[in-house]
Amino acid sequence: MDTLGLYLSVPFCKGKCTFCNFASDAFPAKRMPAYVSQLCREMAEARGFAGRHGLVVAPVVDSVFLGGGTPTLLDASQMRAVFVAVRQHFKLAPDAEITVEAAPGQIADDMLGALVECGVNRVSLGVQSFVDREAQAVGRNHTGASCLAELKRLRAAGIANLNLDLIAGLPHQTAASWVESLRQAVESGVEHVSVYMLEVDEDSRLGRELIGPGVRYGAHAAPSESMVADLYTQACATLDGEGLRQYEVSNFARKGFPSRHNCKYWTRAAYLGFGLDAHSMLLDGAGDAVRFANGDELDAYIAGEPEREVDRIDRLAAWEETVFLGLRLVDGLSLSRLRGSYSRAWVDGFEAQARELARDGLMQLAGDRVMLTQQGRLVSSSVFGELLAGALA
Ligand code: SF4
Q1: What is the pLDDT of residue 392?
Q2: Could you give the domains of the chain?
Q3: DSSP element (H, E) containing 20
Q4: What is the model's pLDDT at position 391?
Q5: Most buried among 113, 198, 203, 340, using CB within 10 Å?
Q6: What residues contact residue 12 under an 8 Å CB cut-off, 6+ apart?
Q7: Residue 335: CB partners within 8 Å, gap ≥ 6?
Q8: According to the model, what pLDDT value does residue 216 have?
Q9: In this predicted structure, what is the pLDDT of residue 387?
Q10: Mean pLDDT per 10-residue run, the chain (393 residues)?
Q11: How far apart are CA 113 and CA 124, in angstroms?
């Protein structure tokens, strides 16, 4: 049976972390009631929107993810209203994975009670670093000790599935301090760890400073690109060795705990997104993917404008998405499944190119499956470029 994932964006944060490139911000709390109303309205209208565009909405939801910013900054009553709307407009599977993102120290007692009451069974905590100086340098006011205390508090409240995020490449990070963050992550006993390499782009203050001159956000104290690659490699070895198996470029989980929701993105399964800058992908009646997204202006979103534009994914774009999303997974792609869905010439070209890249140690073929090697994951953008060019040559 086809199932659906729901993503709900709540873009309110206490402050803007210097590395963050999301549409979130320290928006005033007085905007929250109108935001929550629009979020609930959007859910109510989802089936109508899908129907107008000939899109299929699977009857059962098996994953819900609240992220975007810091959803736990809502009032407990607003959080309850969001979940009332989720259950009013969608049928949740009894074992649905329900995740809420949170920042350490930003879950009030009544909010924690509301999360449990609403059926939240997974919390993703934005630790970023267990080393106090590194967390503070990027605008966080938590400490390693307060993060560990928060994880224990969540566990004691009955949240049995915990993730923590770490970032490789923060200002002041060293090989030794990174080992310390990894050690704390493992010893905390969490089921899942996400490790992101700091993004150097125009959309975050730290990223901008890394590209251009400036000393305000600590870019001068950030590790070099090659050192970040070493930190990432170290994380893969350490976490894998401690039973947190790598299953995706940035994600590691104990057995049975990969994120069901995030796996939908890499396998191109259907999901509906609501809220600021939220993205969606559904299938049309012919089984072709259709993507649509909300804008990233808070006022326009709350006013319910403009209606989202739908982007029908043609066969070539679908093929490209399948390859570059699927290869993010450590288990890679099945050649026979690709042959069942796409042009034989494309898949043959892809396989030939993968064999070439395997000779360079960047890819691996095992039976029916094709995957990146650890080395290939480090240079995945250039590998994808060669693969797609080879397949279409
Ligand atoms: S990293 Fe998280 S808490 Fe920090 S600004 Fe971005 S969304 Fe908000």
Answers
A1: 62
A2: 3-264 (3.80.30.20), 314-393 (1.10.10.920)
A3: none
A4: 61
A5: 198
A6: 24, 25, 26, 27, 29, 31, 32, 35, 69, 70, 73, 74
A7: 347, 351, 368, 369, 370
A8: 75
A9: 83
A10: 94 92 94 98 97 96 96 98 98 98 97 98 97 93 96 98 97 97 98 92 81 77 89 97 97 98 97 97 95 96 88 95 95 97 94 95 96 92 80 62
A11: 16
Residue 306's pLDDT is: 76
Amino acid 35: pLDDT: 98
At residue 390, the pLDDT reads: 64
Q: Are strands 310-312 and 289-293 parallel, antiparallel or unpaired?
A: antiparallel
Q: Which ligand 1 atom sits nearest the alpha carbon of residue 67?
A: 7
Token pair, residue 364, equals: 């691996």
Distance (Å, rounded) from C-alpha 118 to C-alpha 112? 10
Which residue, by CA, sits nearest to atom 6 of ligand 1? 20
Instruction: Look at ligand 1, atom 7, and give the residue with the nearest C-alpha.
Output: 69
**Rounded distance between C-alpha atoms, residue 120 and residue 161, angstroms:** 10
Could you count the other beta carbons within 10 Å of the beta carbon of residue 181? 27
CA of 17 to the centre of ligand 1 (A): 6
CB of 128 shorter than 6 A to ligand 1 = no
What is the separation of C-alpha 169 from the centre of its chain, rounded to a whole number of angstroms?
Answer: 18
Among residues 285, 170, 263, 269, which one has the least CA distance to residue 220? 170
* Cβ-proximal residues to 211 (8 Å cutoff; 6+ apart), any chain: 200, 201, 202
69 lines ligand 1 (CB under 6 A): yes
59 Cα–ligand 1 center, Å:
32
Q: Residue 322 Cα, ligand 1 centroid: separation in angstroms?
A: 29
Token representation of residue 5: 């994932």
The residue contributing the CA closest to ligand 1 atom 2 is: 69
Pocket test for ligand 1, best of 22, 65, 141, 199 (most atoms within 8 A of CB): 22
Give strand ranges (E) for 117-238. 122-128, 161-168, 192-197
Q: How far is the CA of 103 from the centre of ligand 1 (A)?
A: 8
| Pocket of ligand 1 contains residue 272 by CB under 6 Å | no
Residue type, 62: D
- Joined together, the tokens standing for residue 355 give 């064999």
